[in-house]
Design goal:
Layout: H1 9-18, E1 27-28, E2 34-37, E3 42-44, E4 47-48, E5 62-69, E6 72-80, E7 83-86, E8 91-92, H2 95-99, E9 105-107, E10 116-124, E11 128-139, E12 143-147, E13 151-154, E14 160-169, E15 175-182, E16 187-191, E17 194-196, E18 200-201, E19 207-215, E20 225-231, E21 239-242, E22 246-249, H3 256-274, H4 279-284, E23 291-292, E24 301-302, E25 307-316, E26 322-328, E27 336-342, E28 345-348, E29 370-378, E30 384-392, H5 396-399, E31 403-410, E32 413-420, E33 423-424, E34 429-430, E35 439-440, E36 443-454, E37 460-467, E38 470-477, E39 484-485, E40 491-498, E41 504-514, H6 516-519, E42 523-529, E43 537-542, E44 545-546, E45 550-551, E46 555-557, E47 567-576, E48 582-587, E49 590-592, E50 601-602, E51 608-616, E52 627-632, E53 640-644, E54 654-655, E55 659-661, E56 671-680, E57 686-691, E58 694-695, E59 704-709, E60 716-724, E61 734-740, E62 749-754, E63 762-763, E64 767-769, E65 778-788, E66 793-799, E67 802-803, E68 808-810, E69 814-815, E70 821-830, E71 839-846, E72 852-858, E73 867-872, E74 884-894, ...
Parallel strand pairs: 2-11, 13-22, 24-33, 35-44
Antiparallel strand pairs: 1-4, 3-9, 5-6, 5-10, 6-7, 8-9, 10-11, 12-14, 14-19, 15-16, 15-20, 17-19, 18-19, 20-21, 23-25, 25-30, 26-27, 26-31, 27-28, 29-30, 31-32, 34-36, 36-41, 37-38, 37-42, 38-39, 40-41, 42-43, 45-47, 46-47, 47-51, 48-49, 48-52, 50-51, 52-53, 54-56, 55-56, 56-60, 57-58, 57-61, ...
Length: 965
Amino acid sequence: MGWLGNPLRPLLLLLVMLTPHSGQLTLKASKSPAELILYENGLLECEIANLSAITLNPNNLGVLWVFTGGTEELNIFMYSNGQITNLWEEAELSKNSILDGNMSLFLRHVTLKHLGEYRCEVFIPPNDKASLTVKLEVLARPTVTIVSEKLVEVGTGGEMILGCQLNGYYPCECKTDWFQSNPSQKKTKMLTDICIAPPIKNPDGTCNVTTEVRLEPRVEDIGSSFECRVTHKAFPESYTAKAAVTLKEAEIHLSKSSIVGSIIGSVIFSVMLLAAGIYLYMRYIYKVPPNVCDLQMPARFIHQQTAEITCHVSGFRPDVISVGWYLRRMNDAEESFIGESKRNQEIIRFSKAKEITEIGKENATDVNWKVRQSNFVVHDDGTQSLSSTLEIYPDLMEDNKAEIICRVSYPTGTQEKRTCLQVDAIAPKLGNIIAPPVVRHNTSVMLTCPISFFTPRQLTISWYERINGVKSLLLDHTEENEAKNTVGRYSHCLREFTYPDHTYSVYSMLTFIASIQENDGKEYLCEVNHVSLKHQAEKWVKLEVKAFPTLDTIRSEPVNPEIDKEMTLSCKVHSFYPKEISVLWFKDKKAIKGNDTSELIENPEKLYEITTTCTTIPTLSDKKSKYHCLVTHESLPKPKFAEYVPENLVSSPKVKKITCDPPNPEVGKTLTLSCEIMDFYPASIQIDWFRDEVRINEDSKYGIANEELMNERSLCSKVTKLTLSPSTDDHQHQYMVEVYHSKSSTKPQKQCFRLLLKGSPTISDFKMVPEIPWFGEYLSISCSVHGLLRKDFIFEWYRGSEPVKCGVTDSGFVSTGDNNYKVESCLIFLVTAEDFERELIFLCKDRYNNEAFKRRIQLPLKAVAPKVSSFTNCDNDRLKIGGKYTLGCRIEHFCPKDIEVVWYKTSNDCTDYQIMGKPEIDKNGLYSTITKLPILMEKNSVNYVCEVRHEKTNEIFEKSFKLRV
């Protein structure tokens, strides 16, 4: 989303602000707020209501859609002068429908970022303008899943749990209700024992929530159906999902004690009828033993849930009686006393139950078993009845298969009833493993397995990875061992919840650093072992690891692209996975054609990279344009881009030929040399004038240079001028302008102009035989003079400042047929080292007015390094202590003569004592000389070194003298 530069934008906005509102143009739209479904397409209506009274002309119609989200206001669509500017990729509007009066905006793939207000503005100059605002709400329907058991037996006192999972809904306000319908009773009731977990927010803004209902079904509930009713804004009516659970009556076996109780009751009733006559005797005198019924208890004993065992004692006389309760666990040799009930009193004992330790904690609690008496009744026949109830909290680990003994004691004897406890556990329910929607390469990942509503607390959790059906253990978690890793890079933690009914829920969280090589395509299993399970329960999830693409900086070739010349942009996209990727190029948000991308390259980490290029021809107006390389990849929630602004656009200068004003300059009259430098950018440029390779400065005697800006076009142009008053010495000299534009090139551009003065003779270029002169050899150098108007000219040669007296030959004046003369002059001389870097001048002098015209040349001679040889005036076999000797070196055949000679005596400078000869020209035409050092022989052996340095060639030569006594 965003506003893009467009030349129509200022005009369109100006028309919107300045057009008066006449009230003739009206718009109609759909209801506001408009409701669209998440990830679907939708339409925001905006139509001209009174189109019949208005004529639409594409060149005189403006439409503007504006989006307001929070405090940000964005222009997303524009139509002006028949041109559509789509400023928002998600928005679309048909050009044909606009002319039919339908300005409705089509939105593609609506997400939560589209929430906000949309304003449609339509104006028809000069006076018609109207606007309307539509508020957009995005809805996401929840996915409803019912979690339940397939078959539940009723009549056993067990508990049933139904779960309703809602995933991916928006807005996050949602209501869920549970209902039970019984066709036989023809009624529906709302269930109230509901547990609602806090909503969980997904990365895309949608929410998840789970609602559970707990109930104890009875026999009369058989045939009932259970449904979860969801009320959400995305549903026009409440959505109902039914639980696939069937209630079945449990098989009940008539116990022997019940039959005996019934028979005894019948006998007592018969005896009472037959013994009515002796009732008073039996009531006051006869001691009647109690009738002890079988123990009454629930169908199931659940771990750590309250249960009651009741013993009914009836028909006894007198009231001296006690009911005692005892416990014998499996591993106990003797029974333990719990407590007892007596007439009008209770004796209660407490049994310390097994220490119940939470997973990962050491928090022991005592659970009380207690005895209470109730329902003491005195009957009309003088007998009494009472009930004694034992309230227990059975523990699966200690009390399973334990024996409960109820012992009734009275004056004539004792009776007891026994029962064996069968303590059941509640099996854990595993939810689907929760994983991030996008698993990123080399980032931390948490897999969460919800394990809900189980008891007892002891639980074993194992995590596995599965590849091609083969499981590998990652870690175990038990009560005794918190987490035993078999693979070190995995870590584990638990989050536990405890409920009032002594059930537990646990979130098992596996954390690790995900990588493509290790984790992509692997299945992860959470396996749970519990005492209530015959087989392990498990859930699994498959990971797809992705790597976000990284975009390098866009590079241009050349680095400083030239205006109106081809420029190639390249961008390296790397470190992404999987390999499917889309790359597009844009200029100011307008798509441009990119070249084929390079071949995908896979690195050792299984990550991919490509290089994409785009070739275009920039203009000067592009210096503020923005080029984008846009990358779309399945790992990205939205496209990613790199940006390039061609701030370094350049244009190479075009240097025209130098012109002279006047065209035929004369001696002593001012002239101007001009050169135009055209179409360069940026404006910084360096211009220099030269006369025969000598730079002309501001105070130069050769002329004054200046620059002028020619015009103010988009590209820069200049004219540079050199003004001078020529003398005869300027005749035939070359003037050069050098243009250096550092932004476009490291090499300067040059233009040359040879100045020829009117009426002045022309001296030709020098000819040399041989073409490459050398020292000690004769050189013949000649030139010709043309355009002589008369014969009053003399010709001279100079070597430096010295005139040449011999070796000169002139041809004499030769008529050229155009009333002019020409003369050829030749100089032959022996080249020596003195001619190195010395000018050779040919002079043509007019005897009439003393005007002199010169032509110079410097011979192409190279510097020559010296040859050094040593000599002495002593014989090494006859050296004596205290003797005087001379050491010397011959330095021969070098040019130029600038040398430096240094003498050393065992690294000490002794140059002050040396004798240096004057360099003289030798037979080879080069310089030669000698250097001497007088010495006094000492006791010890001495080393002398003569070092010769030739400055021009930068050569250093050494000669050593090792003298021994």
